[in-house]
Every structure is written in structure tokens, then in C-alpha cells.
């Protein structure tokens, strides 16, 4: 038991530094998300027109080839694949001795999916009509975009900093953000989600990421002191 406590204690090495901008950023994210959610629930005309206009643009692109491409993209960005990506990242970090980062990602993944599910069950937005491929459940938020956003944030903030070349880091960051946009487009193209679903999902994931950072910084000392006392 003492060995287990020692390993846990050693795993809690400060991942993030305190940053006053983090509180404001999480506040901005959550305000915009809640405003968007209210507009969706109330069937706001602006949101309905926005969704309809984007759907019309992507609807004009429908073809067998595009459908095959976007179906592959939506599979690679599916919640199941996102979980696999994050578990793989956790394993790699754990094997490299970064147990703190690995445990923190696990917390973000589990708690984030619970929150996304609760929001989905609360809003209960029906999916768009005319789905190109089968999709069950409610529409808001998009599990694909939510999970992909968490994967990308994990890579940008926990993996890319290990790359010394700044130009390489910037290039990969742009590619990751581009991938997120492509996954979001695939969900709208396939009529699995509305455009506002994708935007809301990215906002929710960003909000929870920032909140988890704040929780980590807030309770870091308490957790380490707890294991110090037990040891």
C-alpha cells in the first residue's frame, strides 16, 4: 500500500503554471456556450438560418466520392477512435514517466464525456433530416467534435511542447486545427449534426479543458499534502 501511495505521490508533479488569463478564457467559453445553447433550445431564428445556410452549401457538394471521404473522416474522428487516441497518449506518457499528465488526461476524458452526455440529454435536440449515414441519439453536442477537440488540445499542450523546433510545432498545430475543422465539416456534410452543434461541442470541450486546468491548480497542493500525510 505504501508503494502504491508513493507512486501516486510521485505522479503529481505540477503540469501547468498558474495563469490569470485561464479564468477569463474559461469564463468567455462558458458564456458563449450557454448563449448558443439557449439560442438552440429556443429555436432562435439566427441559429436556424445559420445552420440552414451551411447545410445548403455542403448539400450542394454531395457526391459518392465526397460521401466516402467524409465517411472515412467521421470514422477516424468518432468518439470510439478519440478514446483510443487518448488512451494511447496516456500510455505513452505513463511509460515515459509522466504519470501526472497521464492521470490528468484520464480525468479530463472521463469527466468530459459525462458532461457532454448530460448536456445532450438535457437539450435533447433532434438530428437533422436526410442523414446520409445512420446516426442515433440526440444532436447537441457532437461527440465527434467534442472528443476530437480534447485530443487536439492534449496534443497541443502536452505533447507538442516536447518538440524543440518552433516552426515544426506551429506547423503541426495548424494541421491539428485543420483536422478538427474537417471532422466538424464531415458531421454536417453527412447530416449527423447541425453546424451549431459542432461549434457548441468545440466550445464545451475548450471550457472543460480550461476548467480542469483550474481544478488541477486549485487542488494540487491539497492532493499532494493528502498523500504526504498518508505516507
TrEMBL record:
Keywords: Membrane, Transmembrane, Transmembrane helix. The chain crosses the membrane at residues 24-42, 69-94, 103-123, 143-160, 172-190. It comes from the Bacteria. Pfam families: PAP2. Residues 102-213 form the Phosphatidic acid phosphatase type 2/haloperoxidase domain. Coiled coil: none annotated. SMART domains: acidPPc. Gene3D superfamilies: Phosphatidic acid phosphatase type 2/haloperoxidase (1.20.144.10). This is Phosphatidylglycerophosphatase B. It comes from Companilactobacillus paralimentarius DSM 13238 = JCM 10415.
